[in-house]
Design brief:
single chain, mainly alpha
Length: 70
């Protein structure tokens, strides 16, 4: 949620600016907002995949222990 608010604030701030007196159709703010959200999504997905991998590894180890006990 914080990343979305940051991206929105940066986007609005940078889109209000001009470069050499020209307002760009797709401003730097839009690009910055897209980059911020992309980085946030990547880190978020990496974190979720690491958690899933850990759970699967723990579950696999637990199943191996059960097979050995039988």
């Amino acid at each position: 949620m914080k990343a979305a608010i940051l991206a929105l604030a940066v986007g609005v701030f940078l889109n209000l600016s001009t470069i050499d007196g020209h307002v760009w159709v797709i401003g730097l703010g839009s690009v910055a907002a897209i980059v911020i959200m992309g980085v946030w999504i990547k880190f978020s997905m990496d974190r979720h995949f690491e958690e899933l991998e850990r759970r699967l590894r723990d579950q696999g180890a637990g199943q191996n222990d059960q097979k050995e006990e039988q």
